[in-house]
């Protein structure tokens, strides 16, 4: 529970008390956690695996909203507002979650008010991220790709010492997340490569000049 932001303000003893209300659930790849407009009476905490939140337009086009992983929470907005979700949640890879019934969660919030404060903080952070994403929506695709690559964690370096980042999602999902098409994503990567800012390497991308890439992300 210590890794979950909405419970991180609690003492270890209080976190243990919270854990006693959780119900573990295992999910397989491709499984739907819930659909848009489903009556949702549970909050989900991801412990292992990744899930994607997808909204479908009236024309049937899917728009990837975000991807959640270990430590992330799904469903707090529904708990706080009582509204039904307007997006579906699907498992990207085998996942393990802890589930809290809304009735139990309401009991925990009354007992530990810090949980509701942390929920509001989480939603506020997500709102800021959404605003930043909207600000980038009008930028050309190479700018969006540069910004996205800079936000990825570097887990290794190349023989030349360049930071190496790995695509956390299939490129078609990355394209959807950036509001573009796989073809436009490929062209943007090729353009950044020609500018000497990235070196694509299969499922990874080397970043040979971080300062120049950060500058590229601004225009």
TrEMBL record:
Keywords: DNA-binding, Transcription, Transcription regulation. InterPro entries: cNMP-bd_dom, cNMP-bd_dom_sf, Env_Response_Regulators, HTH_CRP, RmlC-like_jellyroll, WH-like_DNA-bd_sf, WH_DNA-bd_sf. It comes from the Bacteria. The keyword Transcription regulation applies. GO terms for molecular function: DNA binding; DNA-binding transcription factor activity. Residues 139-211 form the HTH crp-type domain. Gene3D superfamilies: Jelly Rolls (2.60.120.10), Winged helix-like DNA-binding domain superfamily/Winged helix DNA-binding domain (1.10.10.10). It holds the Pfam family cNMP_binding. Residues 6-126 form the Cyclic nucleotide-binding domain. One of its GO terms (cellular component) is cytosol. This is CarD family transcriptional regulator. It comes from Brachybacterium muris UCD-AY4.
């Amino acid at each position: 529970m210590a890794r979950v932001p909405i419970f991180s303000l609690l003492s270890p003893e209080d976190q243990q008390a919270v854990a006693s209300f959780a119900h573990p659930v295992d999910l397989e790849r491709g499984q739907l956690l819930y659909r848009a407009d489903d009556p949702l009476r549970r909050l989900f905490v991801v412990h292992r695996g990744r899930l994607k939140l997808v909204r479908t337009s009236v024309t049937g086009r899917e728009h990837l909203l975000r991807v959640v992983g270990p430590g992330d929470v799904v469903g707090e907005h529904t708990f706080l507002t009582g509204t039904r979700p307007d997006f579906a949640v699907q498992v990207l890879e085998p996942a393990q979650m802890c589930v809290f019934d809304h009735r139990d969660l309401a009991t925990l919030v009354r007992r530990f008010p810090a949980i509701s404060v942390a929920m509001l903080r989480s939603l506020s952070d997500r709102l800021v991220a959404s605003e930043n994403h909207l600000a980038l929506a009008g930028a050309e695709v190479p700018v969006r790709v540069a910004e996205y690559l800079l936000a990825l964690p570097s887990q290794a370096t190349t023989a030349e010492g360049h930071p190496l980042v790995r695509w956390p999602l299939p490129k078609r999902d990355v394209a959807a997340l950036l509001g573009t098409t796989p073809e436009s994503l490929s062209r943007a990567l090729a353009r950044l490569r020609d500018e000497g800012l990235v070196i694509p390497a299969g499922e990874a991308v080397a970043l040979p000049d971080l300062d120049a890439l950060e500058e590229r992300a601004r225009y």
